[in-house]
Amino acid sequence: MSNILQPKKVKSQSRNRRISLGVTYAILGVMSIIWLIPLIWIVLSAFRCEYQPDGTFIGTVTSNFFPRQFGLENFTKLFSGTYYGVDNAFLKWMLNTLIIAVIDCLISTFLVLSVAYCMSKLKFRLRKPFMNMAMIIGLFPGFMSMIAIYFLLKSIGLTGNPQHPEYSVIGLVLAYSAGAGLGFQIAKGFFDVIPNALVESAKLDGCTNFKIFRRIILPLAKPIIIYQALMSFTGPWMDFIFAKVIIGADNARFWTVSVGLYSMLFGTHPDTNLFTQFAAGCVIVAIPIVTLFMFLQKYYVEGVTAGAVKG
Amino acid sequence: MGSKAKKGPNKVANFFSPIGKFFWNLRRMFLGGSAGTKLSYLIFGAGNFYHKRYIKGAIFLLLQVGILLFMILCPSVNGTPYGYKALLNLGLGNLEEGGQFNPATGEFSTGSDCKLMILFGFVTIAAIVIYFIIWYKNIQSSYKADMDKKIGKKPTTIIEDLQALLDQKFHITMLTPTCIAALVFTVLPTIFMIALAFTTYNSQDMNNLGTNLFHWNGIENFKAVFTGEGSLGVEIKNRFLPVLSWTFIWAIFATLSCYFGGIILALLINKKGLKGKKIFRTVFIMTIAIPQFISLLAVRNLLGQYGPFNAMLMNLGWTSQPIGFLGLNTSDSEILAKVMVIIVNMWVGIPYTMLMTSGILMNIPADLYEAARVDGASTTKMFFKITLPYVIFITTPYLISSFVGNINSFNTIYLLTGGGPTHVGYQAGGTDLLVTWLYKVTIDQGSYNTGAVIGIFTFLITATITLITYRRSKAYNEEDTFQ
Asked: Do B259 and B342 belong together in one domain?
């Protein structure tokens, strides 16, 4: 308001603002570059196609950031290659991961939504104890129970089964999705925001709790459903340590893609020059996941923000 | 919930009153119930048969027969029985030495399998608990039918009971799958691992002794952390405190650096008049979307001995030899590796906080700023007096959970440094956190008991922090007023 009376100050203020905007652009630009460098490097390495003077392919990490020659050799090697005695291993790993991710996504999302709805909108005696228990269990490091889950699955033949190595995929799905219901907090925070009056009035109209859930809550819960589905679908693509332990180091046919890619760098494969193929694999894996995230960005941000506020 | 909030001397009474109520109910239902109800104390579903609710009665009876058969017949898996035999086995007495032990797979060829004995013992105990819950429910259901009859109401039919599962008892329907799944795949494994902390289950030790068997040994493993006994004892004793303190330092720095870095980034991106907000946000979200094992391994190689970063430094003449940023060699600097993981972790963590705080920043009531501006407050002052307190107030629960998350931050350490630089003779390296150490001790060395001890310590730390801060927070105490 005082600006009207002091036109000189307006001018200097707008100049200050332009300077500060410029500085902001500069900082953000530099930060963006720093954040993108490793990703750009992986993409460049994936398309690197360099040969030593004697004609052997250079597949290791090299000191040059930009490749001297580009080509698709890494991708053709990746898709046709035999790793750990498995033909077309990369395609098989991709398919395994896709199957695991889809099933895990369905089970986890269902469990999370049902628990979150109960905790948010239903009143019953064990509600608070259940929430406390879920929190306490969540504080144990996951790796502690990981080995126990392995023993458990092994004792019922769902992993390390010599007759049916494929069962370990079922075991891994169980390991991923079984505990999902305990991670209900974000979804509960979302349901808490849905006004109780809506539920109460539906009750007065004679709706059962099941009907309220199906007809009122679920349609309103689309953002959180998408968030949960996104999280549980991308989980198996991102995790490698659980998959490594549960499926087993000697069961390469049924690895997930992350275990496979990890083993290209640290494994016991005779051909150790696999960095560029690893990079090619990373590009293949990252493209669909990043695309998913970009399309569902809105829902992801909503879920993350809900998590921040509700803990 | 109001009565539960009572604190003080009532706490003990509050804890025991449900137990007293439970026995009181049992007595009341026995004395006041019909003959059918009384018979239900012995035979499940008898009361329901008495009220001609055959299906419900049959379900109860089947459950009773099923669990009793399970207890008596003792079905066995891989030669290890369930049922009453599993309870006897829990003592780990009368063990039978098996054939050869294969350290590569951690499996026994034959003979007693101690770990399965413990596991199945716990499953059997769970079955007994479930048996008594069903027993109580069966009495309750029969007694309720008695009471309905008394006041002239028809006892509920099976159809009505099923309908109730979709309405008044909908929470049972909704929670059962999660409860079963969590019990089997989360609670049971956790209890099992806690139990292993009290055993001699260390495949190296067992291998040296030429045995496949292990025993209970009380709190010996916990003592070994401080006295240094046992095969891993010296290592545990010498490395426990350094790893513990580094875990804390790491968690504090990692949490605060990402937190404030994220807030600053959010402020920059949300600056008034800035164009291309969406592009900048997308860049940072992209780093979240890319699986961590990809981005972290990329950074590891980028900064590695033969990577482009070291090559660049050498070309510039800033260093004559590649610098071991990530402590991948034993001779590398530990301090440098520690600083580097915190810096790289900022790369991982700042976008998350940025996303979270962006939404909150936009929700700060505009009149707060307006009022401050009228009072002549500077931009800096407004940031420290309005923006920061507001954001911190709202995100306190996140701050706590991210602190706990950082204590358990496995991926960053394992993928970047692998815990290195490793000390000569010790498994736990300079950047190892309790969790990565736990992983090494358990998976790499097969020392399940020591791993479990480390896990329990980690749990105690995170639980203490969470309980103290979280239970005091508004979000928890006013949880049901929020709805």
From this structure: yes
Q: Tell which of A135, A147, A232 to mutate to test the B interface (max B CBs under 10 Å).
A: A147
Peptide bond into B421 cis (omega under 30): yes
Residue B302 falls inside a structural domain:
yes
- State how far Cα B229 lies from the chain centre: 29
What's CA B403's distance to the chain center, in Å?
Answer: 14
State pLDDT tens for residues B248-300.
999 999 999 999 999 999 989 988 888 888 899 888 988 888 998 899 999 99
pLDDT for position B7:
47
Domain that holds residue B466: 227-482
ipTM over 0.95: no
Range in A82-86, B132-136, B430-434 the model is least confident about: A82-86
- Per CB-CB distance under 8 Å, the chain B contacts of A140 are 190, 455, 459
Give the chain A residue whose CA is nearest to the CA of B168. A209
Which are the contacts of A51, defined by CB distance < 8 A and separation ≥ 6?
A: A57, A58, A69
Same structural domain for residues B155 and B231?
A: no
Pair B166, B310 in one domain: no
CB A305 within 8 A of CB B470: no
Chain A contact for B366, CB < 8 A? no
**Number of independent structural domains in chain B:** 2
Q: Does B323 touch chain A (CB under 8 A)?
A: no
Q: Are residues B251 and B382 in the same domain?
A: yes
Contact B33, B47 (CB under 8 A): yes
Whether B238 and B158 map to the same domain: the answer is no
**Residue count (chain A):** 311
Let me know whether B335 and B455 are in one domain.
yes
For chain A, say whether B15 makes contact (Cβ under 8 Å): no
Query: Is residue B84 pLDDT above 70, yes or no?
Result: yes
- How far apart are the CA of A157 and the nearest CA of chain B, in angstroms? 10
Give the residue from A9, A151, A154, A242 with the most B CB atoms within 10 Å of its CB, the best one to mutate.
A151
CA triple B142-B148-B153, angle to 5 deg: 140
Pair B327, B428 in one domain: yes
User: Are B192 and A285 a contacting pair at CB < 8 A?
Assistant: no
Query: Searching chain B, which residue's CA lies closest to the CA of residue A114?
Result: B174
Nearest-by-Cβ selection for A245 from B269, B408, B443: B443
Task: Establish if B149 belongs to a structural domain.
Answer: yes
Chain A hits for B411, CB-CB cut-off 8 Å, are: 241
Chain A: residue nearest B358 by CA? A305
Do B420 and B430 meet the contact criterion of CB atoms below 8 Å apart? yes
> Does any domain span residue B199?
no
Report the residue of B297, B443, B461 to disrupt the A interface, i.e. the one with the largest count of A CBs within 10 Å: B297
Kindly state whether residue B66 falls inside one of the protein's structural domains: yes
SS3 call for B364: coil
* CATH code, domain carrying B261: 1.10.3720.10
B274 has a chain A CB within 8 A of its CB: yes
Which residues of chain A have a CB within 8 Å of the CB of B358? 301, 305
The helix or strand, by DSSP H or E, that contains position A294, with its residue range, turns out to be helix A275-295
Decide if B464 touches A, using CB distance below 8 A: no
Structural domains of chain A in order of their starting residue, each with its CATH number: 2-77 (no CATH), 86-310 (1.10.3720.10)
Beta strand ranges found along B41-154 (DSSP E): 76-77, 80-81, 101-102, 107-108
Contact criterion met (CB < 8 Å) for B289 and A289:
yes
The whole-number pLDDT of residue B324 equals 84
| Local structure of residue A83 (DSSP, 8 states) | B
**Secondary structure of chain A: what % helix, strand, coil (to 5)?**
75, 0, 25
List the single residue in A with minimal CA-CA distance to B82. A155
Specify the pTM. Answer: 0.86
> Which range, of A223-232, B6-15, B105-114, B181-190, averages the lowest pLDDT?
B6-15
Shared domain for B351 and B478, answered yes or no, is yes
Helix (H, G, I), strand (E, B) or coil at B216: strand
